[in-house]
């Protein structure tokens, strides 16, 4: 059964909990710069994630690991300046929170103060419990992330579906309940079986947002450049491309090159 979309003037962490309670699904997309964030916010997306996927999408790295805290702050600040409505969640990058709860807090404070972001997201369960608690105790909202955690790619060795075996599935459910218990306002579940994701969403009172986790969760997130078809090499099952901007942009740029070389641009009406 569909639920009517409410007109929220500004999305907060409380809004997301209310949306889950009311049965309204949560929309979430990534953005990494002012111009794209302005469009995403204007289109009515509830949550903008300034993801460490900027390492791949914006900088061309193979993994999310190389991006730095300074770079995340730079991207997030541009996004925050663009938005009027969306909640902006910023990824804590690899190495900024895993080993030391005090370092985790310092990283989160820098993101909040220097970018103006509204919340942070970090990957992992009980392994990073103390870091999450330290950040939460400072009054900074935290979104968890379980399942496929790209910052651990060298540990897993692959981007395949996680938690297919009972032991890993049980740990994921325990971690999700722990994240809720210590105060996280939401959880992202990435690339896990749909049945398991639905079980998790039904077992916690905070929103569960999926990427490759089926439709039984409380919302969905995709990488903006993937869903718009600006990237074209990436073809996971969970990705729906709403446009083919790679082809459209290539054709437009090629036409521009041709027009310049053929003296068709600028024409008489396009000059002073």
UniProtKB/TrEMBL annotation:
Q: What is its EC number?
A: 2.1.2.11
UniProt subcellular location = Cytoplasm
Question: GO biological process: any one?
Answer: pantothenate biosynthetic process
Record-listed Mg(2+) binding positions: 52, 91, 123
- A Pfam family assignment: Pantoate_transf
Q: Does the keyword Metal-binding apply?
A: yes
> What InterPro entries does its record include?
Pantoate_hydroxy_MeTrfase, Pyrv/PenolPyrv_kinase-like_dom, Pyrv_kinase-like_dom_sf
Catalysed reaction equations from the record = (6R)-5,10-methylene-5,6,7,8-tetrahydrofolate + 3-methyl-2-oxobutanoate + H2O = 2-dehydropantoate + (6S)-5,6,7,8-tetrahydrofolate
- GO molecular-function terms, A-Z: 3-methyl-2-oxobutanoate hydroxymethyltransferase activity; magnesium ion binding; methyltransferase activity
Q: Report the cofactors.
A: Mg(2+)
Where, by residue number, is the active site? 190
Q: Which CDD domains match?
A: KPHMT-like
| Protein function | Catalyzes the reversible reaction in which hydroxymethyl group from 5,10-methylenetetrahydrofolate is transferred onto alpha-ketoisovalerate to form ketopantoate.
The name of this protein is: 3-methyl-2-oxobutanoate hydroxymethyltransferase
Organism, scientific name: Gelidibacter maritimus
